[in-house]
Amino acid sequence: MKMKKLAAVILTAAMGASLLAGCSSNPADNKNSEGTEQETPSNQEEEGTEGTEGTSDTDDTNANEETPAVSWDGKNITVNVASEPQTMDPALNTAVDGGMMALHLFEGLMKWEDTGSEVEGTDGTANSAQITYGQAESYEKVANEDGTVTYTFKLRDGIKWSDGQPVTAGDFEYAWKRLVTPDTGADYSYMLDCVVNANEILKGELDPSELAAKAIDDTTFEVTLTTDLPYFEELCAFPAMMPVRQDTIEANGDQWTFEPSTYISNGAYKLQTWNHNSEIIMEKNDQYYNYANLGPDTITWKLMDDANAMLSGYNSGELNFIENVPQAEIANMIASGDLKIVDYIGTYYVCYQTQKAPFDNPLVRQAFTLAVDRTYIVNQVTQSGQVEANGFVPAGVYDAEGAAGDDFRTVGGAYYAETDADYEANCEKAKELLAEAGYPNGEGFPVVEYLYNTDDNHKAVAEALQFMWEDVLGVTVTLNNQEWNTFLQTRKDGDYSIARNGWIADYNDPMSFLDMWLTGGGNNDAQYKSAEYDALIQQAKAATDPKERAQLMHQAEDVLMGQDWVLNPLYFYTQKYMLSDGIQGMYYCPLGYFFFDSVHP
């Protein structure tokens, strides 16, 4: 049946769970996309970057007081986007919240800048962002006879690290080669497989020194790509591609990010203080080439994941910007205009551990996917303008014709439909599939666990999924929540059956959502292995014709979603936020990043 009819049952179950939780003597685990979903990241999940989107359901009787947000002092801004980041190393980060921090501390060859144009629906609180030159002042692009493409970047004159040493092309060479070095253990190492020799390095067949990314001299950086890449400029602005200092990393090892004295950066801000699990304070980098035009003296990132505490801090003026509010407050705050909603290119989804029974069977995965009522989830649970996901690559991602044509999701179509009649049919099909897998009416199906990171939104989604699966399929699903960093490691290790996930675009291209599922990929939490899928992705990466490339990516998604049912997409993200009155100059890009370097009264 359609989930609208089950709302009262789910609400009753959720209330009962809340009452039981209130009687417990154990404190709730906390965390935050995907993401950036976001969700995300984060938010983030999300974030692709993993979307974290984290808040907790801890009670706070002061959270809902209607105290107007206090105006800021005009010099120092205090924000909250997530709790303690998993890492502050830009090469190792995979979450939107960590990426957002990195983009204030580091700058790549390219960067995001304020367009001066307001993001629709934000009442002047946020402008849009676009790609422009960062540490580079220009580049030349040459198509070679063998099909490769060479970019030659010229760095700005006089750019410096936060300790006053010059930034050189050699710093970029070191950072990019460090990223693909297997011993670095970077989940995003595959993002550089567009560079000549990267694949062979990742396989251990060549030394990282053979990567076709090199310093010609101190101000000239040359990169040769295997083929033309429509999103290469965005890639050059991605946190993992930021330059890092070889001397401080080699002297301090994994601890180079822990202290301001060793955390040398080249961005608009530098690290002043990191009080773990409390706050990260950044101050203006007086060595930055555009120092004179920077906004606040300091940006303080409060590290918390309790939605009630966030809202309370915002209302008291302690926080000038927040991304999350208590789940119960969302609908009213959107209606009042206090909570802003902006576009966010990402997908909130469930991933299955494809190498462990019972989810090593695609029939079981398809059954669990079809048993979900996404319309109910977005209308009755999340309530923030999200759109039901009918594929993995979300709406808004470019297809072959880029911004001028239909997006990838429109061209690719839906893998399941969501009308009342369709959902009824989906449920019947799900029952048939589970029976075909050997579990008629759920008989003999083992108890399985759904894993999520602590957050009241994730909890509400988990409870809805639990009910749907048990009601439609006759199976028993238990719920387990973990603190954010623990959750990430558990999921990465494959120590789960079903898990919440979210992915936010790293750049506007379907490949940001598709190449992560290559066999052995650093972000392949589903442990998915498919020679057919791998071949399609590699063919798409090598394709020079945009239409052929897009078609190959559609075929790959067909294998991922329509054949192997590796993932269970629930909805396409939106990003919510609140900003104190009197603050101007914040800008945002739909990859999940808010920028505070230019805010002013």
Concise account of the structure shown:
The chain is an alpha+beta fold.
Could you name the ranges where pLDDT drops below 50 across 5 or more consecutive residues? 1-47, 52-69
* Strand proportion: 15-25%
Find the structural class using helix and strand composition: alpha+beta
Which fold does the CATH topology of the domain at 345-576 refer to?
A: Dipeptide-binding Protein, domain 3
Measured as a percent range, the helix fraction is: 25-40%
CATH architecture term of the domain at 345-576 = Roll
CATH superfamily of the domain at 345-576: Dipeptide-binding Protein, Domain 3
Care to count the β-strands? 19
The helix count comes to 17
CATH class of the domain at 345-576: Alpha Beta
Q: Characterize the largest beta sheet: strand count, sense, and whether it forms a barrel.
A: 11 strands, mixed
The coarse overall form would be: globular
Rg estimate, integer Å: 23 Å
State the separation between the terminal residues, measured CA to CA: 53 Å
Overall mean pLDDT: 89
Oligomer: single chain
Give structural attributes.
601 residues; Dipeptide-binding Protein, domain 1; 17 helices; 19 strands; globular; disordered N terminus
Plain-language structure description:
By secondary structure, the protein is an alpha+beta fold. Among the domains are: 121 residues, Dipeptide-binding Protein, Domain 1 (Dipeptide-binding Protein, domain 1, Alpha-Beta Complex); 232 residues, Dipeptide-binding Protein, Domain 3 (Dipeptide-binding Protein, domain 3, Roll). 29% of the residues lie in helices and 20% in strands. The chain contains 17 helices and 19 strands. Strands 1, 8, 9, 10, 11, 12, 13, 14, 15, 16 and 17 form an eleven-stranded mixed sheet that branches. A four-stranded mixed sheet has the order 2-3-18-19. Strand 2 and strand 3 form a beta hairpin. Helix 9 packs antiparallel against helix 12 and helix 16 runs antiparallel to helix 17. The longest helix is centred in the last third of the chain and has 18 residues. The relative contact order is 0.19. The N terminus is likely disordered.
